[in-house]
Each structure stands twice: as structure tokens, then as C-alpha cells.
Amino acid sequence: xxxxxxxxxxxxxxxxxxxxxxxxxxxxxxxxxxxxxxxxxxxxxxxxxxxxxxxxxxxxxxxxxxxxxxxxxxxxxxxxxxxxxxxxxxxxxxxxxxxxxxxxxxxxxxxxxxxxxxxxxxxxxxxxxxxxxxxxxxxxxxxxxxxxxxxxxxxxxxxxxxxxxxxxxxxxxxxxxxxxxxxxxxxxxxxxxxxxxxxxxxxxxxxxxxxxxxxxxxxxxxxxxxxxxxxxxxxxxxxxxxxxxxxxxxxxxxxxxxxxxxxxxxxxxxxxxxxxxxxxxxxxxxxxxx
Length: 290
Hints:
- By secondary structure, the chain is mostly helical.
- The chain has helices spanning about 1-20, 25-35, 45-55, 60-80, 95-100, 105-120, 130-140, 145-160, 165-190, 200-225, 230, 245-250, 250-270, 275-285, and strands at about 90, 95.
- It has one domain: Farnesyl Diphosphate Synthase, CATH 1.10.600.10.
- Strands 1-2 form a two-stranded antiparallel ribbon.
């Protein structure tokens, strides 16, 4: 846990330095960093740093990638909370970005974080070919190859606008793309800050996918059995008619599936050197209560 706390401090300090680069108008700078600076578990960012550690990356390099991923994650949260999406007034126990700054500025803050992330990566102290590969993976997994298309499918399914007969097929598509793809990108991009071989990178990729789907399944379960105070947001899945694992498979089966995916994730990397950190994160994903 000490290592994770140290990573969190490094990431928080890096984001604070980005925030201090004052921008006009001041209110926009505040909106831009309101969500990235509001705390959170930093799981995706720490996954990137732990994966970097596995393959002997320098902390001064991997922290750029971790912070960039955190900016993208923050942008997705800002947009998720908007009235046209999940319509959530709170995030991490605080008023959502749009409740503080208004919808228009919140949308622009999300847009700004999404693009700024790639500017951060471009300035990372890494070889150009590594930065290009990281940007390729992250832009795909966070965009139309991953998170964005998953969110689109999620919204369309909740509005009954998708003519897909199999709810199981659909919920697995949504979870893989909406959540798991960005988690997968976090570990792969972090690993690329070091020097993994092809087989190691493939194992890391599978780890990220399994752990990422498990993460979203647990989120689904917590929306039913979790404490709203600990969650820091409303339980909105039932209200929004969201297609979730418990809705399709039942609550008990969902917990069992998440645990099985955790084991699959751990099995992919347990024989790799310095994998203890990622193994512990996989366990944390399942055991968390918020």
C-alpha cells in the first residue's frame, strides 16, 4: 500500500503542476481541473505506473502517461454526469462539474482534458516511437475503439434503440468497451514506458481486459448493494434503465464472474517478474466497497 500511496502523491503533484499553468479565463482553468483534482482512487493511473515498474520504466516517464490517462478518465466522468447522459449531481462526494460550472463549460472542460492528455504524452521523456505507440493505443481504447463506443452502446441500449436479441452479448460488449478498454490501455501504455517483449505485452493486455471487465461488474453490483456515501454518487442504473451484469446474470452470479475474471487476470501475470503490484490491484478491484 505504501507504494500505491507514493504513486498517488506523484500523480496528484503532477496534475497540480498542470493546473498551475494558468489559463484564461480563470474560471475555465478551475473547471478544467475541478474533476482531476477532486481525488478518486487513481486506479487507472496507478495501473500504468505499476506496469511501468514491472518493465523497469523510469518514474519520470511513466508519471506522464499515468497523469494523461487520469485526465482522460476525468473527462469521461464529466461527460457521464451530464443531464443528457447519467444526469448525476454528485461525483466523489462533491457536486458534479456541470453543477458547479454549468453544462456548457463542463462540456468544454471535458473536451479540453481529452485533447490535453495527448499533449502531456507528447512531452513525456520517452523515445518518439514509444510515444506514438502509446498515443495510438490510448486514442483507440479511449475513443471509437473502446470507451466512447461502449458508452454509446450503453445509452442506446438503455433507450431500447438497439435491435440485439441477446442481452448477454450486449452487456459483455458494453463492459468490455466502456470500461475495460481504458483499463487495458492503462497497463499496456504503462508497460510500454519500459521494455516488455511481445509475449509479456500480450499477457499484460489480457490482464487488463479481464481486470477491466471485473471492475465494471463490481461497479454494477455496488450500484445495488453499495453505500451511496462511500460511492460518492447516486445509484442511477435502475433509474436510467442501464443494462448491467446483475440485471442480466443476477447479483450472485455477477460477483462470481468478477472473482473468476480476477483469477484469470492474476494467472496471466503471476509468473512475470515484479508482478506483485498488479496482482494486488486486481484483488483490490474485487474487494473495494466504492
